[in-house]
UniProtKB/TrEMBL annotation:
Domain ABC transporter intervals: 20-249
GO MF entry, a single one: ATP binding
Protein name: ABC transporter ATP-binding protein
Stored SUPFAM superfamilies: P-loop containing nucleoside triphosphate hydrolases (SSF52540)
Domain of life assignment: Bacteria
Entries under CDD domains matching the protein: ABC_DR_subfamily_A (cd03230)
InterPro entries for the chain: AAA+_ATPase, ABC_transporter-like_ATP-bd, ABC_transporter-like_CS, ABC_transporter_ATP-binding, P-loop_NTPase
Family according to the record: Belongs to the ABC transporter superfamily.
Length: 323
């Protein structure tokens, strides 16, 4: 797909710092359910930020508050320098939202629905811009088609075109690739990167951890209404990722010999596997010493492999740790 050019995505207010600033945000629904507790979050201008969390963690609630769809109970949110409650209109024009649900008027044409979305923000008609958005999203040939005749993937792209029609600087994508096939998912990723490269800040929520691993510059994890971690993706994987050395033994061990007690070892596969967990970042992994000791103990192995924990492992550990 061709890169999307959002030339109008000029920063305003607070240019060097955060493009979204969330402070002390809380939400208690009318039912009394507390969906968000004291959330602090800074989104940096120009980044792709992935918000991860199990079902019901509060992701949609958080996005909906920032986009002005749900009222916060406590706290302050600034979007590109504008308070989302006191300065709602200015804040809202900076934001594009691609919601989870595909909701467009089935009988309208692609062109009309995107044009209408721009009009909702009180922006003057700009056919050249709409044309460019549709071309960039490979929707130009379908501009006169009724939405109901489009494939699911195309409908999703129409939702993105609508969200971009008023030239936002911040784009929220709520589960952008849910139920989308692998090829289209890759297309979406490419498109999102192109948008980011043109200066649009992207915040996405996803259930696909590989999506966050592939796309995000930073990752935030939300669980039970609380942000439990925000970190650069590479730092996160570096810091929390474990590495393991797995040795396939010639003969099974019934128990770990006392001589090996100084190492973080476990037996698996009925004693045929010796698993050593170590810190890949430390100068001294301990592998050389362990192998020497195994030799001294007469423990032979026929194969060895290493494995590194994925973002998924890290995520599961994090969420379980707080459960
Ligand atoms: N209008 C509402 N009234 C009462 N409770 C609500 C309302 N909307 C959401 N909730 C509750 O708030 C919690 C957070 O919901 P939210 O949709 O923000 O989670 P989520 O992280 O987006 O989940 P999912 O991954 O399933 O989309 C859930 O327990 C949900 O049932």
């Amino acid at each position: 797909m061709k890169p999307l050019d959002n030339r109008h995505a000029q920063p305003s207010g607070n240019p060097a710092g955060s493009v979204i600033s969330v402070t002390g945000l809380g939400k208690t629904y009318a039912s009394g359910f507390q969906a968000l507790r004291n959330v602090d979050l800074e989104i940096r201008r120009g980044e792709i930020f992935a918000l991860l969390g199990p079902n019901g963690a509060g992701k949609t609630t958080l996005i909906s508050i920032i986009c002005g769809i749900v009222n916060p109970s406590t706290g302050v949110v600034l979007a590109d320098g504008h308070d989302i409650v006191r300065d709602y209109r200015a804040a809202r024009t900076k934001i594009g939202l691609v919601p989870q649900e595909l909701s467009t008027d089935a009988f309208e044409s692609v062109w009309d629905t995107v044009k209408f979305s721009r009009g909702l923000f009180g922006k003057a008609a700009n056919p050249a811009l709409i044309e460019k958005i549709l071309k960039d999203l490979s929707l130009w040939e379908k501009k006169d088609s009724k939405i109901m005749t489009l494939s699911g993937g195309m409908k999703r792209r129409v939702m993105i075109a609508k969200a971009l029609s008023h030239e936002p600087t911040i784009l929220f994508l709520d589960e952008p690739t849910a139920g989308v096939d692998v090829e289209l998912r890759r297309d979406m990723w490419e498109m999102v990167r192109a948008l980011r490269d043109n200066g649009v800040t992207i915040i996405l929520t996803t259930h696909y951890i590989e999506e966050a691993e592939e796309m995000a510059d930073r990752i935030g994890v939300i669980n039970k209404g609380e942000i439990i971690l925000v970190e650069d993706k590479t730092v996160l994987m570096h810091k929390l990722g474990r590495k393991q050395l797995i040795l396939q033994l010639q003969n099974p061990l019934m128990a770990l010999p006392a001589a090996l007690s100084g190492y973080d070892l476990a037996l698996a596969e009925g004693g045929f596997q010796l698993v050593y967990t170590f810190d890949a970042q430390s100068e001294e992994t301990g592998i050389a010493g362990l192998l020497r000791l195994l030799g001294e103990q007469g423990i032979d192995f026929k194969d060895l492999q290493t494995s590194q924990s994925s973002l998924e492992d890290i995520f599961v550990d994090l969420v379980r740790g707080r459960a």
